[in-house]
Design brief:
Distance between the termini of chain A: 75 Å
Oligomer: homodimer
Structural class of chain A: mainly alpha
Number of strands of chain A: 0
Strand content of chain A: under 5%
Helix content of chain A: 55-70%
Shape of chain A: elongated
CATH class of the largest domain in chain A: Mainly Alpha
Largest sheet of chain A: none
Radius of gyration of chain A: 21 Å
Number of domains of chain A: 2
Number of helices of chain A: 9
Chain lengths: 221, 221
DNA sequence: ACGGTACTCGACACCCTGTCGAGTTGGTCG
DNA sequence: CGACCAACTCGACAGGGTGTCGAGTACCGT
């Protein structure tokens, strides 16, 4: 018996209980969604499409998910978890080397989201409308920001980084930059960076922001 | 069979011709949209709401705009123009002082978009679905990026800024950062910066990125 | 064999969009 | 003045999507 779902506070999204055959259906819906998202935009996919693809009727779909959005949210949950794990592994690997840690973390996140462009795009399209997606995303960004801020403070404490605006503020700016640039690149929004330049460019901004001073004063007018 | 549409390249979108009374209606629709966006999300506003608000029937609405999105696009057009103008003025005011120019430009853009939060949010919610909104936004960002890149190259040429990644790549990253952080702040998305800190923090990242070196080498691994 | 729970779906009520065609109005011209 | 035409208006319709309800069916443990 798969336990009654160890859903953390914030409540279960999805269906009520677990049953053998039902699990397959749920997976089929998820798989169909992933597959269709590879072809068209979320807005062009109806609940009926999802249901048909999973071999069930539309009303039955609602037994498994409360809405189309909930399916994307479930998918996003998985990808976010993957990103988190892969990023954490990179940080662990880098040990005390903060710069290497940032490089590895950025690489991990970039790879995860580029590998799931379709989902990334769909999730982005839900941000304006879905509180749940927004909450999940906020939570992820919040974690990244907190970790970044802590690292910056560490570098400042050991004298490696100069003082400046609150570490958290810099962390907020840098992490949103990463998010947006990766997103633009993943979806082909112009202007964007070439995929191969992402890491180098973003990392340069991070390092200069954290370690660089403000340079020489402006030239007299 | 779409009508010939005498639309000059990139020109006015909206209805076909000009007539006295019709202009009032068009304005009424725009005004209603702006007003309603102050209360609820775009997705919760129907064409009927817009029509009623403007004192016309739903079919009549379609005489003036091809869709709800087109109304937002028209509104966005105005705000973007305002941002452009105000930004250009700031740059002009700063003359040769590149740093002052960036500060003024950022301030102008920030003020414009914070002053139109509702519209900003609505436009953002259309980005995933509307090609037109995407195109308009891309065009704006492209202009900002091009100008930024040119300025960076100028600073490098006169020896004020150190070399590094292509100026354009840095410009892309920095401008998307501004966009995203301003947006997060305007919509209350967490994590975000306090409105009063926006300018200082973003400008610090810009200056350090453009003028700062990469700091001392990493601690030996 | 029986009762319950998981699951299924046809049918329905709604809401929204976009269009069509039959008007109405107001300015212009013979 | 009247007749015309373009601008404008809207009732009615068709179509497509969502979410729900209630009447089933399948399978479990007892």
């Amino acid at each position: 018996m798969a336990a009654p779902l160890p859903v953390p506070p914030g409540g279960s999204r999805g269906r009520r209980a677990r049953r053998p055959s039902g699990d397959d259906r749920e997976r089929a819906i998820l798989a169909t969604a992933e597959e269709l998202l590879g072809r068209r935009a979320l807005a062009d996919i109806s609940v009926d499409d999802l249901a048909r693809g999973a071999g069930i009727s539309r009303p039955t779909f609602y037994f498994y998910f409360p809405s189309k959005d909930a399916v994307v949210l479930a998918l996003l949950d998985r990808v976010v978890e993957e990103a988190r794990a892969s990023r954490a592994a990179a940080l662990r690997r880098a040990g005390d080397d903060v710069r290497a840690g940032w490089r590895g973390a950025l690489e991990a996140v970039r790879d995860t989201f580029l590998a799931h462009r379709a989902l990334t795009t769909a999730a982005a399209s839900l941000l304006p409308t879905s509180v749940e997606v927004r909450a999940l995303w906020s939570q992820v960004m919040e974690q990244f920001v907190a970790e970044t801020a802590a690292a910056i403070e560490g570098e400042r404490a050991r004298g490696a980084a100069p003082p400046g605006p609150p570490a958290r503020d810099l962390a907020v700016a840098l992490n949103w930059m990463d998010e947006r640039v990766i997103h633009a690149t993943a979806t082909g929004t112009t202007p964007a960076l070439a995929e191969d330049d992402l890491l180098d460019v973003l990392l340069t901004v991070w390092l200069r922001t954290v370690y660089g001073g403000d340079g020489p004063a402006a030239a007299p007018g």
